[in-house]
Amino acid sequence: xxxxxxxxxxxxxxxxxxxxxxxxxxxxxxxxxxxxxxxxxxxxxxxxxxxxxxxxxxxxxxxxxxxxxxxxxxxxxxxxxxxxxxxxxxxxxxxxxxxxxxxxxxxxxxxxxxxxxxxxxxxxxxxxxxxxxxxxxxxxxxxxxxxxxxxxxxxxxxxxxxxxxxxxxxxxxxxxxxxxxxxxxxxxxxxxxxxxxxxxxxxxxxxxxxxxxxxxxxxxxxxxxxxxxxxxxxxxxxxxxxxxxxxxxxxxxxxxxxxxxxxxxxxxxxxxxxxxxxxxxxxxxxxxxxxxxxxxxxxxxxxxxxxxxxxxxxxxxxxxxxxxxxxxxxxxxxxxxxxxxxxx
Length: 344
Hints:
Elements: E1 3-9, E2 14-21, E3 26-33, H1 34-42, E4 48-52, H2 57-66, E5 70-74, H3 76-79, H4 89-100, H5 113-144, H6 154-166, H7 174-207, H8 209-214, H9 222-232, H10 241-247, E6 252-254, E7 263-266, H11 272-288, H12 295-306, H13 309-330, E8 333-335, E9 339-341
Parallel strand pairs: 1-4, 4-5
Antiparallel strand pairs: 1-2, 2-3, 6-7, 8-9
Helix pairs in contact: 5-7, 5-9, 6-7, 7-9, 9-11, 10-13, 11-13, 12-13
């Protein structure tokens, strides 16, 4: 069999494979165990393999590329239209095989192990921040049941807990004071773990030359730079800067028909973590833009004057995403007066 294209539906232990030849005739339709996966494709001639961009996809893409195959990852939402009839593993594999052969299909770049390492740091830190916020809210809720209300801000809460524990006249029992001490230790543990991850990310930002170049863009620091390098890579999967901004949900949504164009708010598609970092970075730039006289500062202040400052922040985040694409694809660093400059 001279197979030219495969669709693989990934899972934990059992993978479904669908293969066609150069005449688009189905030649393979079978299930493989995890142990059989590598040996099966090692026996196949180099061909095109499509997989959904899901859990384990980047690992298997790297493994199959080492065997000489061309692997392309497809966003799951682009595979769904090709699923025929009922949803099952065999139909999913067939849909992937069909989708990967489409000439205008969009693909996800395969991440290296180093990119996944950095992305793991960001994922863990994001989850710890979420858990710390939940713990702080729990402490506030419990204290409010005893008539104690702490001002907003996690720093304020950290300072208030020891004072509340030492206040003998606030009516708290000995039992609850011990419980509050345990909650305080939980909060401190989260602070320590987040600080450790911040230090790891800072080290990565110093060691990575690409992250250093991205930090030349105002509003992008070590956190955003390393997250962008881990998620986007060399950005060559995007044809232009607007495509990167659109993939992050920073472009207007559309509801256009009959020649009448109607633009909505931003789509909020793609990676919300990257979008959040860019928007927060844009807010930081916007706060000091009034004291600067470079072209970008004048532009964003003009937008903020005509529109709401939040609109200006998102517009600046969109521009930052386009500049990121230019730096990743073309090289160089960013100069606020002259835009992109060549690397020495």
